[in-house]
Amino acid sequence: MTETQKWTERYGHALMNTFGPPKLVLERGQGCRVWDVDGNEYVDFLGGIAVNTLGHAHPALVGAVTRQLETLGHVSNFFATKPQIELAERLLELAAPGVEGRAFLCNSGAEANEAALKLSRLTGRTRVVAMEDAFHGRTMGSLALTSKAAYREPFEPLPGDVTWVPYGDVDALAAAVTEETAAVVIEPLQGEAGVNVASAEFLRAAREITTRSGALLWLDEIQSGMGRTGTWLASHPAGITPDLVTLAKGLAGGIPIGALLAFGDAAGLFAPGNHGTTFGGNPVATAAALAVIDTIGSEGLLAHAVEMGDRLRSGVAADARVAEVRGTGVLVGLTLTGVEAPAVVAAAQAAGWIVNATGPDRIRFAPPLVVGPEDVDAFVAAWPGILDSAAEGAAR
Ligand code: PLP
Q1: Looking at the whole model, is its pTM more than 0.85?
Q2: H or E stretch including 12?
Q3: Which atom of ligand 1 is the closest one to the Cα of 137?
Q4: Pocket lining for ligand 1, CB < 6 angstroms
């Protein structure tokens, strides 16, 4: 029995079966590489699903977390800490420079969205307009805004009053938003749906429509934000200021964190007692996020993400079995033809690469922002062979 088999069996007995059996049992990581419990090496082109911004064991992140934990590890929200305040200031300035805002810090993406949904109720309205194919998380509130029936139906009734609009359809959005709409929630880039990118025109139209009807424009940048697409927010190229932004995933490079940013009048909606969390704004998590932000700046990772993403997209697109390539920066989605995505994931893993399927014919890559050209080029060179093995495996 291999170590992987032993640990997988123990996992099956000890963990709830929410994720199915693990594909690997991992023990160690360094940069873009991880090693499993049998010592096999993999190049990580998934980055914890768009989380490990700086890769694994980056000294800036390790140093910041270690120093903070040695100094002050946790206080309750009766008290404030310097990294908590500094992070809130930095995030507001990165997301909407010069615009008055406030942050609420929490521990995950779903929790950030839950906070945004609660805040939207304080407008006095209850209706929310969400996008088809949206993914916003698994708590009851964020699930109510997640479109996939298989995720939602076992848990209904969910918090209601949600109207669904096709992603990118300006006319449908204009028709759905009324003076009873509390908020319109949009992922500028739908990651879980397979990396669908909203056009700048759609985001600008959403801003106009929500402003006209007095609804909040809420951008879920949990997967797309914090530099992954080559700008701090994926929505930045559209040049709009949203009322709400939710962040998580890559924000602290792998340390659990979430954030709700609110701008303008929305920033003043929560009053004492309206919302809370024990761990939100934890000094270790916020120090980690500050280290991630500083390192993205000092290592020039925004421009690097664009360069590496373009290199990866054009490299893999050269194979005729790739029908479409989508995405911005190092969030890359592919649609395959004639090869099944789960078989590609398995073939890639057998060849030493971690990638992910977002659907039967859809592959996603979300490598760390620090991924180097040599790893991208090696993957592009391996790609036709991976597709061959996937097709052969399926044929056998
Ligand atoms: N929103 C988006 C756009 C996401 O991609 C995710 C996670 O994949 C979430 C929300 C939920 O975040 P979490 O898994 O941290 O609760």
Answers
A1: yes
A2: helix 3-14
A3: 11
A4: 108-110, 113, 135-137, 187, 191-192, 220, 222-223, 248
